[in-house]
Design goal:
By secondary structure, this protein is α/β, with parallel strands linked by helices. The protein contains 20 helices and 26 strands. The strands form 7 sheets. A 6-stranded mixed β-sheet has the order 6-9-10-3-11-12, with helices on both faces. A 6-stranded mixed β-sheet has the order 18-21-22-15-23-24, sandwiched between helices.
Length: 667
């Protein structure tokens, strides 16, 4: 009887070559049953390539793969699935126009006489969701669900096929902190059930939290394997990049200058839910400072930046860039003025994936010299410019400037975009998740370059989900929650814990402490004071003690109203708090109108210093049922139109014009 094999998966001396580069150079990886094994390395170190070999997407040039001690040949993902090997890719492999359920069963449908039966598949999916806490709406289209839900759909695809060897390629790169925490719990539960997990990540804290063992790669070569209980983050980082890494980049004090970008009263409405995803947001970014927007993903940051950069429509608001109103200007005009943008989604908005590196590097300025002249493209100038970016930002591209963007790793795609936006002429850098998917060495380099941008006078607007990144880089911090700015801080005077409370909505800073202009809807015109009767512009405030005033009829502004108060009672101001609203004015045929006069007549027992407050009859009746308001119409009242008294607040008292019409109407 043969002894039970020690490893469920063993990859021995794997070699994989691409044109101009060796991605995997004699790498050995061993995975035990029930183990979470992390794979760590720089961008372009060969991690995803190695996992693609295991999943059958690539064929190794050298080396062997053993499953439960037996050598196997994996020619395709179907072969991998037959061996119960599943993979969640860094960039999800989902059909966006299909439902979640259709994506899960795609390629593994249960059909009878040519018809697909989804009843049993749905029941199986529901059981898996309940068991692992992976709740997702099976009937929604993939295009309509969040990134976190899409990842759950990918995990369900693996579990639906009864895979027991699970590969997670950068699973947390696009998740919120809460989603990351839930994923970590799910992975631990899977491992406790005997499933074996290969976990690719750049985040050292996640590896230390969830992994049992870690294998480190550097530039395509095997560096070593170590148990996480026997190491720490600093040692892992040094193994990965080959030198000591500084997690905090030193920076001097900022010297902010004039305003570069000013955003005023921005509102964005979700076209599906009709809710305000950005609600009256105002701020400004000044020359030589880094303004960071902190917040949990899904609180309006994406919509705000998309509106600012021209990627999304907005309901209202204005943008001023170097004093020029660019609210409705084109993206090209904003680029001309000096706006650089590192987008949140590098593949959707950052690159044309089927273009080569050189084409992508000049895509915003190919019409300018030296890249073109009189409509003719200067290919050499384009290549030289692209080569310089590759060198300065340590981009790993097998064919240099001729490398197709699609063939590059996610981290190297990100470095390309950062390099392009920082290398062109600009005065404002809008950086959204600039280090997403980068290793610690690359993060350190990008942070240094962002600080250098600030020191050279560039205004930097940083949006990041990483609180450590925000605290390390920012000169000022704004916190967004549910589409609103709820806090403004100096990073030297706030802790990560306090920021977290604002991000979760547990605390909110008073509006007057944020230093922004008041919400436009709340602004009211200042009343004009008169000694005699107040003017119409005063809107007859119901909370102001009055002895005379004017109220137009809601149906006819040219009719004046007189009212007598019978048996008045003193009403305390705090009892009645009607809200002031604009009177609705309906234009009528021009005619000379008598003065609008409202003359409250007080009984003999009332005194002027009683601080009487006019109120609607319904409100006064609550405190005194004997109180009556007898309206008297005068002027051009028309009994046929049902003119009404506009009380000046949200409750309007409708009074038929037949009530107490004066003698002048009879005449």
């Amino acid at each position: 009887m043969e002894p039970e094999p020690n490893y469920v998966i063993e990859m021995r001396d794997i070699v994989k070559d691409f044109p101009g580069i060796r991605a995997n150079d004699h790498i050995t990886l061993q995975l035990k049953k029930g183990e979470i094994h992390a794979l760590l390395g720089e961008n372009g170190a060969g991690k995803s390539t190695l996992m693609s070999v295991l999943f059958g997407l690539y064929q190794p040039d050298e080396g062997v793969i053993l499953k439960d001690g037996v050598e196997v040949k994996i020619h395709s993902p179907n072969d991998a699935t037959a061996l119960h090997i599943g993979m969640v890719h860094q960039h999800f492999k989902l059909v966006e126009c299909f439902s979640v359920l259709d994506n899960i069963i795609l390629g593994d449908e249960d059909s009878k006489i040519g018809w697909v039966s989804k009843k049993e598949a749905r029941a199986k999916c529901l059981d898996i969701m309940k068991k692992y806490g992976l709740e997702v709406d099976l009937d929604r289209k993939v295009s309509d669900i969040s990134v976190g839900m899409q990842q759950r759909a990918e995990i369900l695809k693996m579990l639906y096929r009864d895979n027991d060897i699970l590969i997670f390629d950068e699973p947390t790169a696009v998740l919120t902190p809460q989603e990351i925490e839930n994923l970590m719990k799910t992975m631990k539960f899977m491992a406790s059930e005997g499933k074996s997990i290969l976990f690719i990540s750049h985040k050292l804290n996640e590896i230390m939290e969830v992994a049992d063992t870690c294998t480190v790669l550097r530039k395509g070569k095997y560096v070593g394997t170590i148990a996480t209980k026997d190491t720490d983050e600093e040692k892992l980082a040094e193994m990965m990049v080959g030198h000591e890494v500084h997690f905090t980049v030193p920076k001097g004090p900022a010297n902010p200058g004039e305003s570069v970008l000013k955003v005023s009263h921005l509102c964005v409405k979700d076209p599906i839910t009709k809710k305000e995803t950005v609600d009256d947001v105002s701020f400004e970014v000044r020359k030589g400072e880094i303004l960071a927007i902190a917040g949990i993903e899904g609180n309006g940051q994406t919509e705000m930046i998309n509106a600012l950069t021209g990627l999304e429509n907005f309901r209202k608001g204005t943008f001023t860039f170097h004093g020029e109103d660019v609210t409705h200007k084109s993206v090209y005009r904003k680029i001309e003025l000096g706006m650089s943008h590192i987008p949140e989604d590098r593949q959707k908005y950052g690159l044309v994936l089927d273009y080569d590196v050189a084409q992508n590097m000049v895509i915003e300025q190919y019409r300018n010299k030296p890249f073109s002249n009189l409509g003719w493209i200067n290919f050499q100038a384009r290549k030289d410019y692209s080569d310089e970016i590759i060198k300065n930002f340590d981009v790993r591209a097998s064919l240099g400037s001729l490398t197709t963007a699609r063939s590059m790793s996610g981290g190297n795609q990100q470095k390309l975009i950062v390099g392009r936006e920082m290398s062109k002429k600009h005065s404002l850098l809008v950086a959204v998740q600039p280090t997403r998917g980068l290793d610690v060495g690359a993060i350190e380099g990008i942070h240094k370059k962002i600080i250098a941008e600030r020191d050279n006078g560039t205004a930097v607007l940083l949006v990041s989900l990483e609180l450590d990144e925000v605290m390390n880089l920012a000169d000022r911090i704004l916190v967004m929650y549910e589409g609103k700015i709820v806090g403004a801080f100096d990073p030297k005077n706030v802790t990560v814990q306090e920021l977290g409370l604002y991000m979760a909505g547990s605390k909110k800073m008073p509006v007057d402490e944020l230093g922004f202009p008041a919400k436009e809807e709340a602004k009211q015109p200042a009343p004009a004071v008169e000694e005699a009767a107040p003017s119409l512009e005063e809107e007859v405030s119901m909370q102001t003690p009055v002895s005379s005033g004017s109220v137009p009829l809601s149906g006819n502004p040219e009719i004046s109203v007189e009212a007598n108060l019978v048996q008045p009672q003193v009403v305390q101001p705090q009892v009645v708090q009607p809200q002031v609203v604009q009177p609705q004015v309906v234009p009528v045929a021009p005619a000379p109108a008598p003065a609008n006069v409202l003359t409250p007549t007080l009984a003999s027992n009332a005194k002027e210093d009683d601080n009487l407050v006019m109120a609607t009859p319904s409100e006064v009746a609550k405190s005194d049922p004997q109180f009556t308001l007898t309206p008297t119409l005068s002027g051009l009242a028309d009994p046929s139109v049902g003119d009404a008294i506009s009380t000046g607040n949200s409750a309007t008292l409708s009074v038929p014009v037949t009530a107490n019409i004066q003698e002048d109407l009879k005449k």
